Amino acid sequence: NRRKKEDRRKNERNRNLQTGSVRAVPEHRICIADRVILCTGGLAGPVFGCGGDGYALAESLGHSLVPTVPALTPLICPEKALKMAAGVRCPAAITLICDGEETGAEQGELQITETAVSGIPVFQLSRLAGYALREGREVRVRADFLPGMPEEEWQKHVDLRLRDDRNQTLEQLFMGLVHPKLLRFILNRLGLVSEQKRAGVKTEQIRQVLQLMRGLDFEITDLAGYEKAQVTAGGIPLTETDPDTMESLACPGLYLAGELLDADGICGGYNLQWAMTGGLLAGRAAAGK
Ligand SMILES: Cc1cc2nc3c(=O)[nH]c(=O)nc-3n(C[C@H](O)[C@H](O)[C@H](O)COP(=O)(O)OP(=O)(O)OC[C@H]3O[C@@H](n4cnc5c(N)ncnc54)[C@H](O)[C@@H]3O)c2cc1C
């Protein structure tokens, strides 16, 4: 009798599969539904239960996957001396340089930690940095710490600092241009210290300090990872869904929404908006409205 019952269940399942319904297997239970919305998020923020399960489910139902990288995340800088500038938050214009080529630029508040550069402008470049690192490219971030300063005004600062005043320390000489911790870090790059007197420093070195304030490079070797990321770049290609209903083109009856898809936005609420709008379209379509 048990065997007959089992056979009946199997036949029922197969019938459902033949009519095009979607089959999912959550922890030893098989659920068969006419319409399923897959919105399991990506890999960012694993503490919220996002482990990328949706990718495997979608792939098992005929979808492909654009490789994923963490996005809106800090960039890891291996330079040991970075701790000298840890805690600095300052305005900066940031350029992302991959294999010597400028691939992106952002402006905003830069944050420096002991191991990473962070803050909104860095976050917004992190997806590009992530894909470049994935391809094995050399990645650097260049920061201009006096963004938007008109050339004429900058030239006045340069002239003032180049003028001979041998009694000043370097800290006094450069006061007011950048955060004192950042100044120490910049001076350290050139083998100088803040307490040093101007008298022992060549004019060319003073010029170099000023140049670094307008373009300081940070070597980037990694991203801070999905634990620190706010969103996942990559995912199920948008071309594999109907944009009006979010229905899968690979598996009718399946709807996809949110971060699971290959779409990620910059900071500003765009990722939540994307997830909610897609969810609304998918929900309406799945409910047959
Ligand atoms: C720290 C942080 C800050 C953020 N800040 C912003 C912001 O300020 N503005 C903005 O626009 N966006 C922000 N985001 C991004 C935004 O929250 C996400 O892009 C958005 O929530 C994605 O929505 P979603 O529904 O696709 O996925 P999620 O909101 O991630 O929801 C997916 C859900 O599916 C569940 N799940 C996963 N796998 C399974 C499974 N196998 N079975 C059952 N359930 C499962 C997860 O537990 C989760 O509850 C932030 C993200 C993080 C991590």
Blueprint of the fold:
Layout (H helix, E strand, L loop, with lengths): L1 H17 L3 E3 L6 E3 L2 E3 L14 H8 L5 E6 L3 E2 L12 E10 L2 E12 L3 E3 L1 H15 L4 E6 L6 H12 L7 H4 L6 H10 L13 H12 L1 E5 L1 E2 L7 E5 L18 E3 L13 H17 L3
Parallel strand pairs: 3-13
Antiparallel strand pairs: 1-2, 4-12, 5-8, 5-11, 6-7, 6-9, 7-8, 9-10
Bound molecules: flavin-adenine dinucleotide (FAD).
Flavin-adenine dinucleotide (FAD) binds next to helix 8.
Describe the structure.
The protein is an alpha+beta fold and 289 residues long. The protein has two domains: 17-71 and 236-286, FAD/NAD(P)-binding domain (3-Layer(bba) Sandwich); 75-223, no CATH class. It has helices spanning 2-18, 53-60, 120-134, 151-162, 170-173, 180-189, 203-214, 270-286, and strands at 22-24, 31-33, 36-38, 66-71, 75-76, 89-98, 101-112, 116-118, 139-144, 216-220, 222-223, 231-235, 254-256. β6 and β7 (101-112) form a beta hairpin. The chain is elongated and about 100 Å long. The two termini are 43 Å apart. Flavin-adenine dinucleotide binds at residues 39-41, 44-45, 48-50, 53, 230-231, 258-260, 269-272, 275.
